[in-house]
Amino acid sequence: METGKVEVPLSSAYRLLHPRLVVLVSCVDEAGKANVITLAWSMPVSINPPIVAISIAPKRYSHQLIEKTKEFVVNIPTMDIVRETLFCGRRSGKTCDKFKETRLTPLPAKMVQPPIIKECVAHLECKLHKQITVGDHTLFIGRVLTAYADDGVFDDKFDLKKVKPIYHMGGDDFVTLVPEIVSPRL
Ligand SMILES: Cc1cc2nc3c(=O)[nH]c(=O)nc-3n(C[C@H](O)[C@H](O)[C@H](O)COP(=O)(O)O)c2cc1C
Asked: CATH assignment of 19-154?
């Protein structure tokens, strides 16, 4: 039967789940030196207690930092810093200081060692709850200790007239959302 469906290679099946919200995760080494990694693979997994998960390949420098120091901050960047966001996803903290190179500003977090990123609009401070190897990535599951956003951009939902979140299509391509909200009545 002709279904009108075409096969997608299994190696790119995950792209059917894109575009995905991009986050900048900050972490530290044992001496307290900060690094930042760009991630498209993050998700909330529990409301109460508040828990989020991020998926990081073992070869990333940030993987070894989070495994050792067991803390991270999920920062939400916007289109204002899309270049810096791509940079942090294409260079490794093993060989460069991404805060210095991008001029993103580290500010002290409230409850964890890794800094928050000033230019981001929201921050979730997390303590590692559990890590699970899943195929070629590690799922770092983090308990959210505290979360906060820039004044005036978030009132239980982001105000998309003020905030342009970054979504990753694939490769070097990003999109954002237009504030056309649909609320079906059931
Ligand atoms: C838009 C974008 C999204 C990315 N998402 C992920 C991801 O979800 N998981 C991952 O392991 N790497 C992801 N990467 C790749 C890492 O960000 C990249 O390898 C980075 O240089 C690792 O930095 P580090 O070695 O300092 O940890 C992504 C890269 C980009 C540009």
From this structure: 2.30.110.10
